[in-house]
Amino acid sequence: MTQSEWQRIPEMAWMNDMTEQQRVIFLGQFNLVRKDEVAGVLLAVLLGHFGAHRFYMGEMGWGVVYLLFCWTGIPTLLGFIEAFFMPGRVRAYNHQQAMLIAAQVKAMPNGPSGITTGIVPVGAV
Length: 125
Fold this sequence. Notes:
Layout (H helix, E strand, L loop, with lengths): L2 H5 L12 H14 L3 H11 L4 H5 L3 H9 L5 H34 L4 H4 L10
Helix pairs in contact: 2-6, 3-6
């Protein structure tokens, strides 16, 4: 991927002042935690009744609430409405993850020992 290609992706702007090794680590970690907008929308529309889109975004508490009230039909309506907001929420989540991972990668010492340092995404703890 050339520099002009990755600059078009907002999350990749965090790689501007990274070494090549740091970029590889950043991309590897970011690809593990990033969410897909289309998947989020589809989950909200098709399985929003059960809160699948909330579980997908790591919002376990809200997902459980949706499951508890799925018999009422209210989560179905909310899931359909939230489908319209899902792309923005996914972009915000990805941006937050990119910021966190970039800060952790830049803080890592250069050299092989830095690669083994565990990077923990937000919400994974």
